Amino acid sequence: MPWSNQGGGPWGSGPKGPWGSGSPPSGSSPPDLEDLLRRGQDKLRNVLPGGGLGGTGLLIVGLIAVALWLFSGFFQVAPDELGLVMRFGKFNRKVDPGLGYHWPYPIESVEIPKVTRVTPIQIGVRFVEDARRGTQTRDVPEESLMLTGDENIVDVDFTVFWVVKAGTDGASDFRFNMQNPEGTVKAVAESAMREVIGRSELEPILTGGRQRIESEVHDLVQKTLDQYKAGVTVTQVQLLKVEAPAQVIDAFRDVQAAQADQERAQNEARTYAGRVVPEARGRAAQIVQAAEAYREQTVAEATGQTARFNKIYEEYKKAPGVTRERLYLETMERLFGGTDKIILDSSGQGGSGVVPYLPLPELRSRPQAQTPQSPTGGGNR
Question: Tell me, what DSSP letter sits at residue 21?
Answer without folding.
Answer: S
